[in-house]
Amino acid sequence: MKWLIFVVAAFLCWGSYGPTIHTGQKALGKPPASALQVFICVGMAYFLVAVVLPLIVMQVKGMEFSFNKQGVTWGTLAGVLGALGAFFVILSFMNGGTPRYVMPLVFAGAPIVNVIVTMVTEPPQGDINPLMYVGFVMAAAGAGMVLYFKPH
């Protein structure tokens, strides 16, 4: 269950991502360039956290530093998808979206896409429980309720 601590840390970080980046965009104050400028800041932070930090941890723990083509290909694709997702959030903010609308839609849609992609990349071993589809509807309805009843 130790992994659950990291899940909580991830959703706390990602749940704060939209409002934080939107605040940075407003603080830079030169729309639409400010949205792209704040994304450059995000990119620098990604480099520090996603490249420098793992290198330090691997060095300190004496971990092996070797790669293979398939791992590099999938890892790079994952990075591209993550960066594109963040870029699309920025573009949504540049085009009038705000965290109170954009992020609930992103975070309601992402689990649905995750399940579908996982089912393709790691096919289920048995029958699919029809309640999964109910979950898809509930995720969409939940996002709709969050948006409809959000504070103004």
From TrEMBL:
<feature type="transmembrane region" description="Helical">
    <location>
        <begin position="131"/>
        <end position="149"/>
    </location>
</feature>
<keyword id="KW-0812">Transmembrane</keyword>
<feature type="transmembrane region" description="Helical">
    <location>
        <begin position="72"/>
        <end position="95"/>
    </location>
</feature>
<feature type="transmembrane region" description="Helical">
    <location>
        <begin position="33"/>
        <end position="60"/>
    </location>
</feature>
<feature type="transmembrane region" description="Helical">
    <location>
        <begin position="101"/>
        <end position="119"/>
    </location>
</feature>
<protein>
    <recommendedName>
        <fullName>EamA domain-containing protein</fullName>
    </recommendedName>
</protein>
<keyword id="KW-1133">Transmembrane helix</keyword>
<keyword id="KW-0472">Membrane</keyword>
